[in-house]
Structure formats: structure tokens, C-alpha cells
Amino acid sequence: MYSPKQGDIVLLEFEPTAWHEKKETHLVVVVSNQTFNAYTKLAMVCPIKEEAKDSPLHISLPEESEVSGTILCEQLKSLNIVDRNPKWMGKVSASVLAEVVDIAIGSVEIEESL
User: Fold this and answer.
1) Quick one: which of 1, 26, 66, 107 has the most CB atoms within 10 Å?
2) Which sequence ranges are marked TM in the entry (predicted)?
3) Which fold has domain 8-106?
4) C-alpha span between 91 and 105 (Å, rounded)
């Protein structure tokens, strides 16, 4: 069974939230490291969208990437991805992963005004 790793681009299945909706698949990038993933049985991921508004919280995947789109760093989520039938689609570069992690950490840093 495939176990997603930090930096992997993964296609996940999401169950419908209502009986009339279809099962959907979504691309995500795995942000959390293997220690977190193994200990919690979860993974922290950011969604990848084909089109997204220009924002300092968004990172466009380079043209040479296996998939195209924009990483939405403000939508960092913790999910049980093993139950979502993960399919490996590619991997982000170390520099792209570092940008995503930097934005994620920056969003929860304690501000000096507190």
C-alpha cells in the first residue's frame, strides 16, 4: 500500500456530503513529515487547484512539474489520507515545499502585538 510522503503530490478521493453528489477527487501536496504522519495516522495537506486568484498565500507549480496548478497554502488541512485511496501523481521540489512550509508556519506565528 502506498504511504504518501512529505512533498508528494497526491490524488485523493472525497466522499460526497449529500446523497445526490458524486464522489470527487482532489490533488493535494503533503506538507507534514513522515514522523507526524506515522504518529498521528494523518497527514497535513494543501489543495492544488487548476485556477486560483493571485495571492501571496498561493504558490504556482513550475511548468516542469508533473501536474499544473496552484498550491493554496491558506487551506492547510489535516486528513486521514490512507482512507482516501491516495494515488501518487508527482513530487514538488524542495524549494517549493520550503515555500509552502514557510507560509504555513508564518500563518501561526505569535504576533508581537499580543
Assistant:
1) 26
2) none
3) SH3 type barrels. (2.30.30)
4) 21
Mean pLDDT (10-residue bins), the chain, 114 residues: 93 72 84 95 95 93 94 95 91 98 92 78
Task: Tell me which residue has cell 492547510.
Answer: 76
Smallest Cα–Cα separation from 1: which of 82, 56, 78? 82
Distance from C-alpha of 28 to C-alpha of 78, rounded to nearest angstrom: 11
CA distance 61 to 71: 7
Task: Return d(Cα 3, Cα 49) in angstroms, integer.
Answer: 22
Instruction: Dump strand ranges (E) for 42-84.
Output: 43-49, 58-60, 70-72, 77-79
